[in-house]
Design a protein that fits this description.
single chain, alpha/beta, three-stranded parallel sheet
């Protein structure tokens, strides 16, 4: 395939699948057209690309050069992901920019005094009406990957990586080892890190990065602090080494491994000098939804028929969900499902039970996969059902067709669950 044909294919992908804005598409077209004009051959070599980058440095300012190189990197990453090329040449091209040193702006003493006085005034007011609460511990969740995520600027006391699954592969890589390498980017120098789950493919990646950063590493699975767990009234009751009969508000069998990871984190934080009372731990586990606003984690919305939703949306999450569904007694299973177009659609659908009745729908976001297209792919795996234009209409149809002892599951995407919860009073 010629270089220009590959660029045209990539630009179509950016416009119709990723739905990038007009300005971004325009920049990609300009940058890639300039690249084609410079290369003047169908199969660019590493040496030619390096000469092109040198040419950019001579002609443009550093900010523009960075953008044009970024355009090339995402283009080649797409070709590699789609297996159009055997080797991503940009992985062999190393670019380094001399960053300008910017001195911090000096804040006058009077301004600092004003800030502190305002802070302490709000603290005193918080004791009266609790409108303002100053927190001395923040739990920062990484948005995407880790190595390049904006949250990676913080200097933490502890890092935690829960598990690795195939998700956001167009950005993080198409193997578990590559994804683990991106996730391991949060491991900091001499800062302890806890790994919730690891595989033969990902463990060496974490060990190598931790060794490089001289960071103490703990694999939670190697020492199970959860001795036993039983489901009671849509919650889990744990027997652990340190906390007997620990009640967890979040249901779902996948929470057992999460809890083991959390207990290891608590143990590490205590070793670092944190004072964490047992009652605080118990209160956190038993009131996590109220304290954090977390919703959509194996959340039961109604009974007779049983209606449960879960935000699991990748192969790892759906694997746990299907296991959990098997543990639920029901007369017939109804599954309301929708997905976004950048996930492993076929990988997820291949895990779902064929005996269920399916209600294919889409969330109210641009990335949502059209319900008809989802139904067509699902048919390849023997999953039969009807399409609905909205989550609300799909759930309502499932409720109308269900008997009191049936089970309705809603999921496939965080956006599907969000639409459901936003309209739950109308159902």
């Amino acid at each position: 395939m010629k270089l220009q044909e590959m660029i045209n294919m990539y630009l179509e992908y950016c416009e119709y699948r990723k739905e990038l804005d007009w300005n971004t598409l325009k920049a990609y077209r300009i940058d890639l057209r300039q690249f084609v004009e410079f290369i003047e051959e169908e199969e660019p070599s590493k040496e030619k690309i390096e000469r092109y980058i040198t040419y950019l440095h001579k002609k443009y300012k550093q900010k523009t050069v960075k953008r044009k190189i970024a355009s090339l990197k995402v283009f080649y990453a797409y070709l590699e992901e789609e297996e159009i090329i055997e080797e991503n040449l940009m992985r062999r091209v190393h670019t380094k920019f001399k960053e300008e040193r910017v001195l911090p702006r000096i804040i006058p003493r009077e301004e600092i005094e004003k800030l502190l006085n305002c802070m302490y005034k709000e603290l005193r007011e918080s004791e009266k009406n609790q409108r303002f609460i100053l927190r001395d511990v923040a739990i920062i969740e990484v948005g995407l990957g880790g190595r390049l995520d904006c949250t990676n600027i913080i200097a933490p006391d502890l890092c935690i990586i829960t598990n690795i699954s195939f998700d956001h592969t167009q950005f993080l890589g198409n193997t578990l080892a590559k994804i683990a390498g991106e996730k391991a980017g949060i491991i900091k120098k001499e800062i302890p890190v806890i790994i919730g789950e690891a595989t033969e493919e990902t463990r060496p990646v974490f060990v190598e990065k931790a060794t490089e950063m001289n960071a103490p590493i703990v694999f939670a699975e190697d020492n199970t602090l959860v001795l036993n767990a039983n489901s009671q009234s849509n919650m889990l009751v744990y027997e652990t080494q340190e906390y007997p009969r620990l009640e967890g508000e979040l249901g779902g069998c996948y929470q057992i491994k999460n809890t083991n990871t959390i207990l290891h984190a608590l143990k590490e934080l205590k070793a670092l000098g944190y004072r964490i009372e047992e009652q605080s731990v118990r209160n956190g586990f038993s009131h996590v939804n109220e304290l954090t606003g977390l919703m959509g984690r194996w959340q039961q919305l109604s009974d007779a028929p049983l209606l449960i939703c879960d935000t699991g949306h990748n192969i790892g999450g759906i694997t746990y969900i299907t296991q959990q569904i098997k543990s639920i007694p029901y007369h017939h299973l109804h599954i309301v499902i929708g997905m976004v177009n950048d996930k492993d659609i076929r990988g997820v659908l291949s895990l779902l039970p064929q005996e269920a009745s399916y209600y294919f729908t889409k969330a109210s976001v641009k990335r949502a996969l059209p319900e008809g297209e989802l139904q067509s792919i699902a048919n390849e795996f023997g999953l039969k059902g009807t399409t609905y234009p909205s989550v609300e209409s799909a759930v309502r149809a499932a409720q109308e067709k269900s008997l009191p002892k049936d089970f309705i599951f809603v999921g496939g995407s965080s956006f599907i669950v969000a639409d459901l919860l936003a309209n739950r009073d109308a159902l």
